[in-house]
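As agreed, record minuted below.
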Amino acid sequence: MRRTRAIIGLCAAAAFFAAGCGTTEQAGGRDDSAGGGEPVTVVDSRGEEVTLDGPAKRVAATEWNGTESLVSLGVMPVGVSDVDGYGKWVGAAPLDGTAKDLGTRGEPSLDALGALDLDLVVVTDSLSEGALAQVEQIAPVVVIKGGGAPDPIGTMFENLDLIAKATGTEDAAARLRTEFDAKIAEGRAAVERAGALDDPVAFSDAYVTSGEVSIRPFAKGSLVSEVFDRIGLRNPWPMAGDPDYGLASADVEGLTQLPDVRFWYEANGSETDAYGEELRDNAIWKNLPFVRSGKVQRLPDSLWMFGGPKSMEQYVDAAIAALKA
């Protein structure tokens, strides 16, 4: 398929700059009534109209939020950046083993994209203009938002609906929204039964660089914290997050700003558990009120913090389980 709009200009830059951030059942396959082979026009996050000859079938994604949306909609992508990493982090929408690895999310391979006979490439708005122009010479491109503060849940569904229209899977997108709303209602009821409505929950992740622990609070406007807010858990982080993802930065001393909250964090089997390993014997860490009171919990692995509805449903389940622990 070819887009009808013209590409204006080219850039020689070959590097891609993707956001560092960016279920077990699929929502259903392609809708029988969708598209009918007729041209499909969508307006992406840039405000650009992109017209396809029909609903896209052979689709690649350069970021994991786009990949998760495709899989959840029943469209198995033929190309994915960092297939191995996606498998380790995104348990909500697993790949089937057929996707071609496009290289890193920061620098997907143009050669790999060009070999796939693509109908569509889904990228995020962090892709540089020059890199975007190069991809558009290979196949039509729709740009989705990488982050969505201050309305991350709304942005998540905007992205999903855009991809659904481009792939003719609008009915599947509607089902995903209904399932998400039901999971939120289920989660809020569970929080209320646990007597935890309005309890403060500080969610974060952390990483180790050259022996130093950097902490990333998920402040107001972050996707996971907004999901927790909808089920009745309050975000106590005092610092403001960045305008795209609602993420802040802190060190262990910064954690002293928190009172005796529930402190939940995400790690992964492929990463160092900074809280459980690096800070275990740290005097400041050991004397934090929530550490002393035993309110620190590591959530399950393979929950993608920047994903779609299926990943966020996993976070609701994880929150309910953590309240019962």
Summary: Confidence is low (pLDDT under 50) at residues 1-35. The chain has eleven helices and eleven strands.
